[in-house]
Amino acid sequence: MNPPRGGRAPSRFVRGRARGGGGYRPYFYFRRNGRVIPAGGNSRHPQPASGQDPGAEPATPRPRGWNNPRFDGNARRTRASKATSIDCSFLRPEYYVAPEDALQVRSLLVDNPRAYPGWRLYFLREEYVADSELAKRIIAVEAHFQRSPDDYSVAEISKCGFFKFSASCAQNDKQLQVVWPTLSEDMRSKPLRTLAIIGLAMHTVVVNASLDAADEAATNVLCPNVSTVEKYVPLNEAIPKVYVRPEGFAAVELMASITHVRVDSLFAVRGIVSSVGEPTYNLAWQAFRCTRCQAEQTLRQRGNFAPRPYHCLKPRCGAKDDFLALRSSPYTRLLVRQIIRLEESSLSLLTDYDNTLPGELDIELRHDLIDAVHVGQEIVVTGVLKLRELCESNELPTTSSAAAGGDLQAYMLACTVLDARHVNREFSKFDLEAISMINAEPNSFKLLVQSLAPEVHGHELAKAACLLSLLGGTNEGSINVLLVGDPGIGKSTMLQNCAQTTERGAYINGKRGVQATNQLGITFSGRNKRVMDAGALLMANNKGHCLVDGVDKLASKQTLLLQCMQGGQLNLPLPGAFASFDSQPSIIACANPQRGQYDQGRYLLQNIRITPALLKEYHLVYVLLDKPSTTRDVSLTEHVRALHAGSKKRAQIAARFALKAKKNDSISDETANESVPPLDEKDSIMEQDYDLDKRLEHNSLKADDELDLLPPILMKKFIAYARQNVKPELNDDAAREIKWHFLELCRRSEAEHEQSQIGLG
């Protein structure tokens, strides 16, 4: 190997045939005294001789590398005119990715002001100014916390590390509004800075309370708070960072209305947790103490390389090494992150499950929000919109697959997570007017039955059962409905309309085979199968509805359905563990006969492929037959004509409701007061069902009649409002009728089979 020209080669790095000149120059670097130096970048060039121009080229030619370009702007070969120092800061790992919150801060000196010991926990760059607007706002928020000790428990906040900051509580404080009148606007437009101000104020209150408690314990003569041989009293440690959980500052919005223009702004979304990723842990900041001046500084940690300080940041201290790592310092922060996926659940959207999917958004949980939710839970998340590169999926775990480099993905950095069961739905003024007009109809129940799947004609009793299941009851129980009948009669159409109308639902098409069976229960996805995905039974949990089209084709998953309908739980066996999830949805399913057409000469279990145990769990079972009838064909023709004639006016129905007079508050006054002949004890149940089916049918249509039915979006809001605010109760007469109906069913079953086939389960 030939020695390089211009002096000896570095002792710690030798590679290639030659070091300089026009020979091969490798693109490598090495570390010396904590600094990252490129190969050949620290070579000592000889000083120019006396009388020589200092700007002239040195005698030893510089090696060709990053800082020695071969072509200039005019594409001509050039040489450097003088020896310039090489800036190798771009080789440090801190510059490979953008730091958190777009703050290019590598390291900082912990120089907190005396009034605020946690200043550098919240403001990395900004210096403290006593009479600034920022200082006045911090003092005002601190005074607000001290005036409301019942709303903010200092001991509890110091223990858990976070607190809830309500918008109503802040707006009711007149003194805070005088100093900071734009608090709500700043929270929505500049949330990170506003949360830093509020968090620093609470951190100062907690620190002052801990110091007062320490002074009081030290002056206590009866029980001095000092360490002895028999008793150890820990020292007063530094208070870590306190996080703010805002509530009520942003209204719930649609995910489709959130664009990239609103990056770093606060908003709220509502949805169901469809996927939960595995929590990840990494060191975000590492604090060091200089052994010479005892100054504390913290360094940002990025990637697999753990950098250490190479000089002290305090002025007049020239320490280059011997820095002590502080693990218990509040400036040594462990970043814990978890990615979940939220599927939107809104009353203003109608989802076509066969063609489109509901909106989804990735949510990043941090710190105390880790493992605060589970799959299938409906939550309301308030957070800040962020962007990240998909190529960084290795460092930022996500449920989305990585795409080409340079593509940006929007996600939400969660600040507050609330259970949707404690957050009521909000209805606009026009929604309430339309709901009240529907309620004021003479026969509102008949109108709702006709508006549910209007394409299906002649099966009003089955549609009424589906509607009652959508409305639910007062208790937490579910209402399961099974529709069995000939193909092409409209069972799938009824289920699709129910999926669009229900407040919270999931639709499974059993005709898709393996894909449908995988969507029913809990599955695992991701690169290492560490992402838990919720199935349809969990997505419809908590008073939701799971619509199963073709339940007879889910032979391998009927055990899972039976387990959910009987016990209300889904068991998940894992390697070395066992988990169970609460799942109590209402299931509306349909099934086709095995031989293509329903055979009335065979029993129900002989016509469909369903186990007897699963069939027993359905509360209502309807057999829909396609019988040829001239009267029904004529009625169906008139119904289709009137339906298409009135479909153009459906968008104006809600507006017309505002012009009608409010009559009463009864949900079905006409049906209750209708002149119906009294039931005779000898009337069979089939005759009574026939009478009810006739009463729910639409009146005979004339040649120019049109069907003014309710739009599906209005029906969805009406059902959601009824489930949230209406609690129906049975009177004594209705209870006696239900009792007599059940006894009649038992009597008929006993007369046909010599013993009753109806169980009490």
Report on this model:
The protein is of the alpha/beta class. Helices cover 29% and strands 18% of the residues. It contains 22 helices and 22 strands. Strands 6-10-11-13-12 form a five-stranded mixed β-barrel. Strands 15-18-21-14-22 form a five-stranded parallel sheet. A two-stranded antiparallel ribbon has the order 1-2. α6 crosses α7 and α8 (429-439) packs across α21 (712-725). The radius of gyration is 36 Å and the shape is elongated. It starts with 28 loop residues before the first strand and ends in an 8-residue tail after the last helix. Residues 8-26, 41-103, 391-405, 647-686 and 701-705 have low confidence and may be disordered.
Question: Topology of this protein?
Answer:
Blueprint lengths: L28 E4 L2 E4 L68 E3 L9 H4 L10 H15 L6 H7 L1 E5 H5 L2 H6 L3 H7 L1 H28 L24 E5 L18 E11 L3 E11 L5 E5 L22 E4 L6 E12 L15 E7 L11 E12 L18 E12 L9 H11 L4 H8 L8 H12 L9 E5 L5 H11 L3 E5 L4 H5 L4 E3 L5 E3 L2 H4 L5 E5 L8 H10 L1 E6 L2 E6 L3 E6 L12 H4 L4 H5 L3 E5 L5 H17 L6 H5 L11 H5 L11 H12 L15 H14 L6 H22 L8
Parallel strand pairs: 4-5, 11-13, 14-21, 14-22, 15-18, 18-21
Antiparallel strand pairs: 1-2, 3-8, 6-10, 6-12, 6-17, 7-8, 7-9, 7-10, 10-11, 12-13, 16-17, 19-20
